[in-house]
Amino acid sequence: MNWSVLAKKDFLDAYRKWSLATAAAGFVLFFAVPTYLRMSRAQHPGDQSFFGLVQTALFFVPLAGLMMSYGAIAGERELGSLKLLLALPYTRLDVISGKAIGRAAVVGAAAIIGILVSTLVFVVLGGTLPIVGYALFLVLVLLLAAAYTSSAVCLSAASPTSNRAMATSVGFFLLTLVGWSTIPMVIRYVLNGFSMPGGAEPVWAKVIDSLSPIQAYSNGMSSLVHGHAASTFYRSGWFALLVLIGWAVVPVALGYRRFRSADL
């Protein structure tokens, strides 16, 4: 359980250095302010959807997760403090697990603070919330934060410098935000003899498209929060939860595999 000591230290360091407060202030700014402006101008505030007002979580939570985590290991490697840390009774698995969980807790806590303030503004100005849908929304936000912090820590463990870790994190963010749907398209292009395939998109291509953390979050919001019936298993809420949990766990395992033999 040495990873829990490092995770707690990472969280407390973010608290002492005002990183947590700064991130929480940013989420309040991006969630609560638009909510206030929209609700105060609405003729019928009770008809407004809270989830529509905070839909920018799809963009800001991943961005915060990556920007607050890309230097988790690469930064300490550059400073030389990573060798000192590993001289203590911590394994490399403890380090990467503790960093991933600690950063996920920081980003998740900051996002939840922003959402709670936005919720208070929404309710005070006359809005109403479905309790179950709201609880599931918070779960999806936390999983989205864990997915991106885990991925950033993985990239940080595989990068010798902070600059390279930041560059790969930005590339990962752009890939999952706007470029993921090109992956099944490229595979189809190769399988079709390097020519554009015709006909309907096969099921396996749609499954790959739904494996993006962004798409999984969107599918979870549609199925679990808004209650829209999913026509296929890869659009369902349970599949979305599995994908997000996978993104929170698998990158840590991949990062450890690279980090355990890295020359520091």
Fraction of residues in H or I helices: over 70%
Mean pLDDT: 92
Low-confidence stretches: none
**How many strands in all?**
0
Radius of gyration: 20 Å
Terminal residue distance: 24 Å
* Major sheet description: none
| Global geometry | globular
Strand residues, percent: under 5%
Number of DSSP helical runs: 13
The secondary-structure element order is HHHHHHHHHHHHH
Counting helices, strands and paired strands, the structural category is mainly alpha
Description:
Helices cover 75% and strands 0% of the residues. With 264 residues, the protein is mainly α. It starts with a helix and ends in a 5-residue tail after the last helix.
Give descriptors for this structure.
mainly alpha, globular, 75% helix, 13 helices, 264 residues
Briefly characterize the structure:
By secondary structure, this protein is mostly helical. The chain has helices at residues 2-16, 19-41, 50-53, 57-67, 74-79, 81-87, 92-124, 131-157, 162-179, 182-191, 203-209, 213-225, 237-259. The chain is built from 13 helices and no strands.
Can you lay out the helices and strands and say which pair or pack?
Layout: H1 2-16, H2 19-41, H3 50-53, H4 57-67, H5 74-79, H6 81-87, H7 92-124, H8 131-157, H9 162-179, H10 182-191, H11 203-209, H12 213-225, H13 237-259
